[in-house]
UniProtKB/TrEMBL annotation:
This is Methylglutaconyl-CoA hydratase. It comes from the Bacteria. InterPro entries: ClpP/crotonase-like_dom_sf, Enoyl-CoA_hyd/isom_CS, Enoyl-CoA_hydra/iso, Enoyl-CoA_Hydratase/Isomerase. GO terms for molecular function: catalytic activity. Belongs to the enoyl-CoA hydratase/isomerase family. The lineage of its organism: Bacteria, Pseudomonadati, Bacteroidota, Flavobacteriia, Flavobacteriales. Gene3D superfamilies: 2-enoyl-CoA Hydratase, Chain A, domain 1. Pfam families: ECH_1.
Length: 254
Protein backbone atom coordinates (compact mmCIF):
# COMPACT_ATOMS: atom_id res chain seq x y z
CA UNK A 1 0.00 0.00 0.00
CA UNK A 2 1.30 3.46 -0.77
CA UNK A 3 2.24 5.56 2.24
CA UNK A 4 0.84 8.58 0.46
CA UNK A 5 -2.86 7.96 0.94
CA UNK A 6 -4.89 9.94 3.45
CA UNK A 7 -5.12 7.08 5.92
CA UNK A 8 -1.42 6.45 5.85
CA UNK A 9 0.14 3.25 4.68
CA UNK A 10 2.96 0.80 4.76
CA UNK A 11 5.54 -0.36 2.21
CA UNK A 12 8.08 -3.15 2.51
CA UNK A 13 11.01 -3.63 0.16
CA UNK A 14 13.72 -6.29 0.09
CA UNK A 15 17.41 -6.24 -0.74
CA UNK A 16 19.05 -9.62 -0.30
CA UNK A 17 18.16 -10.60 3.30
CA UNK A 18 17.38 -7.04 4.45
CA UNK A 19 13.72 -5.97 4.68
CA UNK A 20 12.99 -2.25 4.81
CA UNK A 21 9.61 -1.29 6.26
CA UNK A 22 8.41 2.27 5.70
CA UNK A 23 5.31 3.71 7.36
CA UNK A 24 3.74 7.04 6.58
CA UNK A 25 0.82 9.29 7.41
CA UNK A 26 0.02 12.85 6.23
CA UNK A 27 -0.27 14.06 9.85
CA UNK A 28 3.46 13.99 10.67
CA UNK A 29 3.60 10.20 10.38
CA UNK A 30 1.15 9.70 13.24
CA UNK A 31 -0.48 6.35 13.93
CA UNK A 32 -4.20 5.63 13.64
CA UNK A 33 -5.06 2.20 14.97
CA UNK A 34 -5.33 0.63 11.50
CA UNK A 35 -1.77 1.63 10.65
CA UNK A 36 -0.51 0.34 14.01
CA UNK A 37 -2.16 -2.99 13.21
CA UNK A 38 -0.59 -3.09 9.75
CA UNK A 39 2.89 -2.47 11.12
CA UNK A 40 2.43 -5.08 13.86
CA UNK A 41 1.27 -7.66 11.31
CA UNK A 42 4.21 -6.87 9.04
CA UNK A 43 6.78 -7.19 11.86
CA UNK A 44 5.26 -10.54 12.84
CA UNK A 45 5.32 -11.73 9.23
CA UNK A 46 8.97 -10.73 8.72
CA UNK A 47 9.87 -12.43 11.99
CA UNK A 48 8.73 -15.73 10.44
CA UNK A 49 10.38 -15.10 7.05
CA UNK A 50 13.47 -17.32 6.77
CA UNK A 51 14.75 -15.17 3.88
CA UNK A 52 15.03 -12.09 6.12
CA UNK A 53 17.85 -11.56 8.60
CA UNK A 54 17.61 -7.83 9.37
CA UNK A 55 14.77 -5.29 9.37
CA UNK A 56 15.15 -1.55 8.78
CA UNK A 57 12.25 0.50 10.16
CA UNK A 58 11.80 3.99 8.74
CA UNK A 59 9.12 6.59 8.10
CA UNK A 60 8.13 8.58 5.07
CA UNK A 61 9.51 11.98 4.13
CA UNK A 62 12.36 14.08 5.46
CA UNK A 63 10.72 15.81 8.41
CA UNK A 64 9.06 14.20 11.45
CA UNK A 65 9.86 10.56 12.15
CA UNK A 66 6.64 9.95 14.09
CA UNK A 67 4.23 12.14 16.05
CA UNK A 68 2.69 9.25 17.97
CA UNK A 69 -1.00 8.45 18.33
CA UNK A 70 -3.58 9.97 15.99
CA UNK A 71 -5.33 12.86 17.78
CA UNK A 72 -8.31 12.48 15.46
CA UNK A 73 -8.87 8.92 16.64
CA UNK A 74 -8.27 9.80 20.29
CA UNK A 75 -11.09 12.35 20.07
CA UNK A 76 -13.39 9.64 18.68
CA UNK A 77 -12.93 7.40 21.73
CA UNK A 78 -16.29 7.20 23.51
CA UNK A 79 -15.72 4.69 26.31
CA UNK A 80 -13.00 2.91 28.29
CA UNK A 81 -13.21 -0.19 26.11
CA UNK A 82 -12.48 1.80 22.95
CA UNK A 83 -9.69 3.69 24.72
CA UNK A 84 -8.07 0.51 25.94
CA UNK A 85 -8.37 -1.04 22.49
CA UNK A 86 -6.70 1.96 20.85
CA UNK A 87 -3.72 2.06 23.19
CA UNK A 88 -3.42 -1.72 23.03
CA UNK A 89 -2.32 -1.11 19.45
CA UNK A 90 0.97 0.29 20.75
CA UNK A 91 1.22 -2.62 23.21
CA UNK A 92 0.85 -5.13 20.38
CA UNK A 93 3.45 -3.32 18.25
CA UNK A 94 6.06 -3.04 21.01
CA UNK A 95 5.62 -6.70 21.87
CA UNK A 96 5.91 -7.65 18.20
CA UNK A 97 9.19 -5.73 17.93
CA UNK A 98 10.43 -7.27 21.18
CA UNK A 99 9.49 -10.80 20.14
CA UNK A 100 10.68 -10.42 16.54
CA UNK A 101 13.29 -13.03 15.60
CA UNK A 102 15.16 -10.44 13.55
CA UNK A 103 17.20 -7.46 14.72
CA UNK A 104 15.47 -4.15 13.95
CA UNK A 105 17.44 -1.09 12.87
CA UNK A 106 15.66 2.24 13.34
CA UNK A 107 16.25 5.00 10.79
CA UNK A 108 15.17 8.29 12.37
CA UNK A 109 15.34 11.38 10.17
CA UNK A 110 13.48 13.89 12.35
CA UNK A 111 11.51 14.62 15.48
CA UNK A 112 9.58 11.99 17.42
CA UNK A 113 6.82 12.49 19.98
CA UNK A 114 5.07 10.13 22.40
CA UNK A 115 4.45 6.77 20.79
CA UNK A 116 7.12 7.59 18.22
CA UNK A 117 9.69 7.64 21.02
CA UNK A 118 8.34 4.28 22.17
CA UNK A 119 8.80 2.78 18.72
CA UNK A 120 12.37 4.07 18.55
CA UNK A 121 13.00 2.55 21.99
CA UNK A 122 11.85 -0.85 20.76
CA UNK A 123 14.40 -0.89 17.94
CA UNK A 124 17.63 -2.77 18.58
CA UNK A 125 19.97 -0.21 16.99
CA UNK A 126 19.06 3.31 15.89
CA UNK A 127 20.60 5.79 13.47
CA UNK A 128 19.36 9.38 13.82
CA UNK A 129 20.14 12.87 12.57
CA UNK A 130 20.89 16.03 14.63
CA UNK A 131 17.31 17.10 13.79
CA UNK A 132 15.85 14.08 15.62
CA UNK A 133 14.71 15.76 18.83
CA UNK A 134 12.30 13.86 21.08
CA UNK A 135 9.47 14.69 23.45
CA UNK A 136 7.03 12.83 25.68
CA UNK A 137 4.03 15.16 25.55
CA UNK A 138 1.43 12.86 27.10
CA UNK A 139 0.95 14.65 30.44
CA UNK A 140 0.10 17.82 28.51
CA UNK A 141 -2.91 16.07 26.96
CA UNK A 142 -4.15 14.51 30.18
CA UNK A 143 -2.66 11.05 29.87
CA UNK A 144 0.85 9.64 30.34
CA UNK A 145 3.37 7.52 28.42
CA UNK A 146 2.22 4.46 30.31
CA UNK A 147 2.31 1.86 27.50
CA UNK A 148 5.67 2.93 26.09
CA UNK A 149 7.32 3.66 29.46
CA UNK A 150 8.87 0.19 29.88
CA UNK A 151 10.51 0.47 26.46
CA UNK A 152 11.74 4.02 27.03
CA UNK A 153 13.02 3.31 30.56
CA UNK A 154 14.79 0.19 29.35
CA UNK A 155 16.71 2.26 26.80
CA UNK A 156 17.48 5.52 28.63
CA UNK A 157 16.80 4.69 32.30
CA UNK A 158 14.03 5.66 34.68
CA UNK A 159 15.61 9.01 35.59
CA UNK A 160 15.88 10.27 32.00
CA UNK A 161 12.38 8.97 31.24
CA UNK A 162 11.09 10.93 34.25
CA UNK A 163 12.85 14.09 33.06
CA UNK A 164 11.09 13.80 29.72
CA UNK A 165 7.69 12.87 31.11
CA UNK A 166 7.48 15.65 33.72
CA UNK A 167 8.50 18.29 31.15
CA UNK A 168 5.98 17.40 28.41
CA UNK A 169 6.45 20.70 26.52
CA UNK A 170 10.24 20.39 26.40
CA UNK A 171 12.13 18.95 23.46
CA UNK A 172 15.22 16.90 24.24
CA UNK A 173 17.92 17.22 21.57
CA UNK A 174 19.20 14.38 19.43
CA UNK A 175 22.55 14.76 21.19
CA UNK A 176 20.80 14.26 24.56
CA UNK A 177 19.06 11.15 23.21
CA UNK A 178 22.38 9.83 21.90
CA UNK A 179 24.11 10.39 25.23
CA UNK A 180 21.28 8.58 27.05
CA UNK A 181 21.48 5.60 24.71
CA UNK A 182 18.25 5.97 22.74
CA UNK A 183 20.23 6.59 19.56
CA UNK A 184 23.15 4.33 18.72
CA UNK A 185 24.66 6.70 16.16
CA UNK A 186 24.13 10.25 14.88
CA UNK A 187 24.56 10.92 11.19
CA UNK A 188 24.19 13.95 8.94
CA UNK A 189 20.92 13.71 7.03
CA UNK A 190 22.77 13.52 3.71
CA UNK A 191 24.65 10.41 4.87
CA UNK A 192 21.90 8.77 6.93
CA UNK A 193 20.64 6.27 4.36
CA UNK A 194 24.13 5.27 3.29
CA UNK A 195 25.26 4.63 6.87
CA UNK A 196 22.10 2.65 7.65
CA UNK A 197 22.58 0.56 4.51
CA UNK A 198 26.25 -0.17 5.23
CA UNK A 199 25.47 -1.19 8.82
CA UNK A 200 22.52 -3.35 7.77
CA UNK A 201 24.61 -5.12 5.13
CA UNK A 202 27.35 -5.88 7.65
CA UNK A 203 24.82 -7.12 10.19
CA UNK A 204 23.09 -9.32 7.64
CA UNK A 205 26.41 -10.96 6.74
CA UNK A 206 26.74 -12.48 10.20
CA UNK A 207 25.52 -15.92 11.26
CA UNK A 208 21.68 -15.76 11.38
CA UNK A 209 21.61 -18.15 14.32
CA UNK A 210 24.00 -15.92 16.24
CA UNK A 211 21.86 -12.87 15.48
CA UNK A 212 18.76 -14.71 16.71
CA UNK A 213 20.46 -15.73 19.95
CA UNK A 214 21.71 -12.17 20.43
CA UNK A 215 18.21 -10.81 19.94
CA UNK A 216 16.97 -13.05 22.77
CA UNK A 217 19.74 -11.86 25.07
CA UNK A 218 19.09 -8.18 24.27
CA UNK A 219 15.49 -8.54 25.40
CA UNK A 220 16.02 -10.72 28.47
CA UNK A 221 13.87 -9.71 31.43
CA UNK A 222 11.00 -8.22 29.43
CA UNK A 223 8.71 -11.26 29.45
CA UNK A 224 6.24 -9.48 31.75
CA UNK A 225 5.48 -7.01 28.94
CA UNK A 226 3.00 -9.55 27.56
CA UNK A 227 0.61 -8.47 30.32
CA UNK A 228 2.14 -5.22 31.62
CA UNK A 229 1.70 -3.19 28.43
CA UNK A 230 -1.99 -4.08 28.22
CA UNK A 231 -2.51 -3.14 31.87
CA UNK A 232 -0.96 0.22 31.00
CA UNK A 233 -3.26 0.53 27.97
CA UNK A 234 -6.24 0.22 30.32
CA UNK A 235 -4.97 3.12 32.45
CA UNK A 236 -4.47 5.32 29.38
CA UNK A 237 -7.80 4.30 27.87
CA UNK A 238 -9.58 5.56 30.97
CA UNK A 239 -7.65 8.83 31.27
CA UNK A 240 -8.21 9.84 27.65
CA UNK A 241 -11.94 10.17 28.41
CA UNK A 242 -11.38 12.87 31.04
CA UNK A 243 -12.54 16.44 30.44
CA UNK A 244 -8.93 17.56 30.83
CA UNK A 245 -7.79 15.26 28.05
CA UNK A 246 -10.67 16.17 25.73
CA UNK A 247 -10.05 19.90 26.10
CA UNK A 248 -6.31 19.51 25.71
CA UNK A 249 -6.67 17.42 22.54
CA UNK A 250 -9.00 20.00 21.03
CA UNK A 251 -6.52 22.78 21.83
CA UNK A 252 -3.65 20.82 20.28
CA UNK A 253 -5.69 20.24 17.13
CA UNK A 254 -6.34 23.97 16.82
Amino acid sequence: MSAENLNGGLETSFQNTIATVQFGHPASNSFPRALLNQLTTEINSLSRDENVSVIILKSEGNRAFCSGASFDELLQVENEEQGTEFFSGFAHLLNAMRNCNKLIIGRVQGKAVGGGVGIISACDYVFATPESAIKLSELAIGIGPFVIEPAVSRKIGKTAMTQMTLAPHEWKSAEWAFEKGLYSALSDSTNLDQEVEIFAQKLSSYNPEALFEMKKIIWEGTEQWESLLFERATITGKLVLSDFSRNALLQFKK
